[in-house]
Amino acid sequence: MAAAGPDPVVFVHGWNSDGSAWRTMADRFRADGWPAERLDPWTYDTTQSNATTAAQLAEEIQRVLDRTGATKVDIVAHSMGSLSSRYYLKSLHGAAHVDAWVSLAGPNHGTTLAHWCGGASCVEMRPGSDFLLALNDGDETPGAPRYATWASPCDNVVNPQDSVALAGAVNTTTDCLDHSALRADQRVYEEVKTHLR
Q1: Considering the chain, what percentage of its residues have pLDDT values greater than 70?
Q2: Which of 75, 104, 122, 124 is most exposed by smallest CB count within 10 Å?
Q3: Domain count of the chain?
Q4: A single GO BP annotation from the record (predicted)?
Q5: Residue at 153 is within a domain
Q6: How would you list the strands of the sheet with 73-78, edge to edge?
Q7: What is the DSSP string of 147-166?
Q8: pLDDT, averaged across the chain
């Protein structure tokens, strides 16, 4: 029997980060009535392939569902976290377990900045990578989840800036915010909260 309450929110951070990056946003969700046990700022190894991370995300989401009694989660992803969570939705049957998906400054079609970092995950973030070609082949927003993206015109990490938007998603352009500021901006939070409800 599903427990009453909002969908649990699983936060998926970006490259070279960890779950603590979500402190401000998670605090706002708590202040707005989300129980702490339904907020999961997950941490993973950002050097590994996004496909590996997606498999680990599937396990994490199942743990959250088992713990809370919920039937679905919402995903809020920042930057590279958008790629592993999309892989989970598209290739690991994750769409059946997700109600709403959010991408904040996600390099959904790659970023040229990824040519300056190494490791599997960085190679996959490069425009035209095999990983991205497969991820974006066909329907970019598969299944029933409600997809939304937020992109800033002042993002100095995701280049080109139009990499963020997905066909079939609600795509929003923010005020002039830097790449990391999308996680902490009050207006972005309010818009994300509205999307999750």
Answers
A1: 98
A2: 122
A3: 1
A4: lipid catabolic process
A5: yes
A6: 39-42, 9-12, 73-78, 98-104, 146-151, 170-173
A7: EEEEE-TT-SSSSSGGGS--
A8: 97
For the stretch 145-182, pLDDT in tens is 999 999 999 999 999 999 999 999 999 999 999 999 99
The C-alpha atoms of residue 169 and residue 104 are separated, in whole angstroms, by 13
pLDDT score at 87: 99
Kindly state whether residue 171 falls inside one of the protein's structural domains: yes
pLDDT of residue 78 exceeding 90, the answer is: yes
Q: How far is CA 39 from CA 6, 34, 65, 68, in A?
A: 10, 7, 12, 10
Say which CATH number the domain at 97 has.
3.40.50.1820
Residue 69: phi, psi to the nearest 5? Answer: 80, 5
Residue 189 resides in a domain:
no
Q: Using the structure block, give the residue that is written with the tokens 């997905």.
A: 166
CA distances in angstroms from 94 to 11, 91, 132, 170, 190, listed in the order given: 15, 8, 18, 20, 26
Structure tokens at 9: 């929110």
Residue entry with tokens 């409600």: 146
Residue 155: exposed, middle, or buried by beta-carbon count in 10 A (0-12, 13-18, 19+)?
A: buried
pLDDT more than 90, % of the chain: 96
Q: Are 87 and 50 in contact (CB under 8 A)?
A: yes
> Is 191 a domain residue?
no
Residue 124: give the domain boundaries: 9-77+87-183
Residue 161 phi, psi (nearest 5): -65, -30
